[in-house]
Specification:
3-stranded antiparallel beta sheet, 124 residues, 3 strands, alpha+beta
Length: 124
């Protein structure tokens, strides 16, 4: 029974000098293709960033406005120092209160408003 049964197997086979040269050339071509692909990828990232950056900034601004409930705007206003409440109030042209805040220490000194006025009134 001298019959041979052939089967397919993966085995290490020594390559020829021609195959070696061909593989080296192909590897050089692959390096060039990878470099071109990397450059295209960087360009695409730049385009993507340029398109999404303004949108992201707008979203951050909108989320801040939603979180705080206020939006900074340039508005024509006049200031009114409310000595009773020790506040600085800002009114628009229609005399509507736009914003109010407590007077700073320097503003209290400038308008000669005592620092303990609220404490004295609340003690009565």
């Amino acid at each position: 029974m001298d019959q041979f049964f052939f089967e397919k197997r993966e085995l290490p086979v020594k390559i020829t000098d021609e195959q070696r040269a061909e593989l080296q050339k192909r590897n050089a071509d692959i390096d060039i293709e990878l470099q071109v692909a990397a450059e295209e990828f960087e360009r695409a990232k730049g385009i993507h960033k340029g398109a999404t950056e303004p949108i992201k900034k707008e979203k951050v601004k909108n989320l801040s406005i939603l979180r705080t409930g206020v939006e900074n705007k340039v508005v024509n206003v006049y200031e009114y120092v409310n000595e009773e409440e020790a506040t600085l109030e800002f009114y628009d042209e229609t005399s509507q209160l736009v914003h109010a805040r407590a007077l700073t220490i320097d503003e209290r000194r400038q308008h000669r408003i005592p620092f303990n006025r609220k404490r004295l009134e609340s003690a009565d």
